[in-house]
Amino acid sequence: MSSVSQDLYQLIEETLGCELVGMRFLHEDKVVSEMGRQDSSVESLEILGEDFRAQLFLDKKLTPEKKDIEHLKKIFNLYLGSSSRIFCGAEILDTITNRSTID
């Protein structure tokens, strides 16, 4: 797991006060990022943002406060924004290196 992903895990765990087993980010019902374990045998929490839906898989059931949810939404917006820029940059570099076209 990259250091960005590790930092994201740690921020979520510190905000919610529990262990994060895994997470999944969706945009228009398409999975854009998955980390850790996505397991139906653990507790899950769904957070809806303007442009994403985050599914968190936790080690225990909890009901977070509204301020914690809003804090997580800000963290996710930063994470997803930086991830898309990194992906686009990597795709452009690969395209230039391989002299191929962007789909």
Provide key terms for this protein:
single chain, 103 residues, alpha+beta, Beta-Lactamase, 4 strands, globular
What does this structure look like?
46% of the residues lie in helices and 26% in strands. It has 103 residues and is of the alpha+beta class. Strand 3 (43-48) and strand 4 form a beta hairpin. The longest helix is centred in the C-terminal third of the chain and has 33 residues, at 66-98. It is globular and about 45 Å long. Helix 1 (3-16) packs antiparallel against helix 2 (66-98). It contains two helices and four strands. The chain has helices at residues 3-16, 66-98, and strands at residues 20-27, 30-36, 43-48, 53-58. The protein has one domain: Beta-Lactamase (2-Layer Sandwich). The mean pLDDT is 79. A four-stranded antiparallel sheet has the order 2-1-4-3, with helices on one face.
Low-confidence stretches: none
Q: How many E strands?
A: 4
- Total count of domains: 1
What is Rg? 15 Å
Mean of pLDDT? 79
**Count of helical segments?**
2
Summarize the topology:
Blueprint lengths: L2 H14 L3 E8 L2 E7 L6 E6 L4 E6 L7 H33 L5
Antiparallel strand pairs: 1-2, 1-4, 3-4
What can be said about this structure in brief?
With 103 residues, this protein is an alpha+beta fold.
